[in-house]
Design goal:
The protein is of the alpha+beta class and 466 residues long. It has nine helices and 14 strands.
Length: 466
């Protein structure tokens, strides 16, 4: 597999979750390690401080100023050379070292103020065998006042030093246990997340299975039992399937309608050609009449096929520029009437479909309004109904101040080939095309009286899209 090829969704999710889990375990391990070291150092400080207080409480000074350590050893390690635990007492005229300090090279401490504490480390030392090592040192400043007199008082400092051997051993044991437990927990969590991921992706696998069934023809559409997050996807697929099925049916119906429409004029022409009694002038007139009829039928069927379909995921189109272009052309055609067209278009409203459908829809509605208006036409465009996670619907309304349409004639004028007034020029299919086009977008076309201008109002409502 090349690096440019995308991994499967499950592999991507598993990789991302695994990396996140490893990062979390690494940070958790580091935090626990630092916490243990700080705790161990704190415990070490307290232990060294307790040794220093024991020396301060049980130690004595002779009359000649020499330090006399406690009779009972505070810790046996202070008596064993090179044991790793050392004591040093620093006073003005000398210092005292525990027997364990014989041999190793330890850092020399300075005098501290009475009551002052100092914890340092790790400091470099030289072990009894000559190897380099490290140690922690705790110092505590004290004042000796055995005779309770100011002249007998003098300061001294007790230092307790312990190498890092014990601390390193404790840290090593802790780290070994820590990473074993964290590694085991990581493996268990990775296995669990793989199982959870596989379970959570089952709905996607069901979608793939259903889609394959649709491709094989075993199912006509996707089912509706899917998680809420996948509903927009399955609804879009179903809408696409229905749109393609409608387009296919529409093409078949258009071809069938065209063939059926041409049968009669062709039959008439055949009959005329077979009629030997017809004169040449009559034959020419009949051929001209039938050719005009066939031309109108072909034009109508092509217009119907072109305007009825729409792309399901078409890009949004600004409505106002198209409307202005159509109105400019109609104002020239109906210049003698002096019709004024007003716009009431909401800002940012758009049409989601084919540009030709928008031209056909606005063109037929506005032309019909210009045809019947006395002096005013009003185009209203507003956002329609809205639904979560879907683009909003659309409202397009055209009002005129013409004579209006009686309610009983509304259904009649929407039929193919029927005109509201036979005296007005036209083929009577413009509003029928609008109705077919609106139906293709699953919308509605309502015809009523205009409250604004007093004439007719044609109102198109398109539902929210996917």
């Amino acid at each position: 597999m090349s690096w440019g090829q995308p991994r499967s969704l499950q592999a991507r999710q598993l990789l991302a979750a695994s990396l996140g889990l490893l990062a979390f375990l690494a940070l958790a391990g580091y935090a626990l390690d630092r916490a243990f070291i700080e705790t161990a150092e704190s415990n070490l400080r307290q232990r060294l401080a307790s040794y220093a207080l024991a020396y301060a409480g049980k130690g004595e000074f002779a009359r000649n100023g020499e330090f006399i350590p406690p009779y009972d050893p505070i810790e046996p390690r202070f008596e064993r050379p090179g044991s790793g635990l050392y004591a040093e007492v620093v006073f003005p005229n000398g210092h005292w070292d525990s027997p364990s300090a014989v041999g190793p090279e330890l850092p020399t401490g300075a005098m501290l103020e009475a009551g002052q504490e100092r914890f340092e480390g790790p400091l470099p030392i030289t072990e009894l065998d000559g190897d380099a090592g490290e140690a922690y040192r705790y110092g505590y400043g004290v004042i000796w006042d055995a005779e309770r007199s100011v002249s007998a008082q003098f300061p001294y400092t007790i230092y307790i030093i312990e190498d890092t051997t014990l601390l390193r051993r404790q840290v090593a044991v802790f780290r070994e246990a820590l990473w074993q437990y964290l590694g085991g927990a990581g493996l268990v969590l990775m296995l669990m997340q793989a199982l959870v991921l596989r379970w959570s992706l089952l709905p996607l696998r069901r979608v793939i299975i259903e889609l394959k069934r649709v491709q094989r023809g075993a199912a006509s559409r996707m089912s509706e039992r899917h998680p809420r997050e996948l509903e927009p996807l399955t609804e879009s697929i179903n809408a696409f399937i229905e749109s393609e099925r409608e387009n296919l049916d529409r093409q078949r119906n258009t071809l069938a309608d065209l063939a059926h429409s041409l049968k009669t004029p062709l039959a008439v022409l055949r009959a005329r050609l077979d009629d030997t009694r017809a004169s040449e002038a009559e034959l020419r007139e009949e051929v001209d009449l039938q050719l005009r009829r066939m031309n109108e039928m072909v034009s109508y069927q092509l217009a119907r096929a072109a305007s009825a379909g729409h792309a399901l995921f078409a890009a949004p189109i600004a409505i106002e520029p198209h409307a202005e272009q159509i109105v400019r052309g109609l104002e020239k055609v109906y210049a003698s009437k002096g019709v004024l067209c007003e716009f009431d278009v909401a800002e940012g409203v758009q049409f989601h479909g084919e540009p030709g459908d928008l031209q056909e829809l606005l063109g037929n509605l506005l032309e019909n309004a210009f045809k019947w208006a006395r002096s005013r036409v009003l185009l209203t465009v507003r956002p329609g109904e809205s639904m979560p996670n879907r683009r909003p619907g659309l409202l397009i309304a055209v009002d005129d101040d013409g004579p209006g349409i009686p309610p009983e004639k509304v259904a009649l004028i929407l039929q193919r080939g029927v005109r509201g007034d036979e005296r007005v020029q036209g083929h009577g299919i413009g509003l029928a095309i609008v109705q077919d086009l609106v139906r293709g977008y699953r919308g509605t076309l309502d015809v009523s009286a205009s409250e604004e201008l007093g004439g007719a109002r044609f109102e198109v409502r398109l539902p929210p899209g996917l």
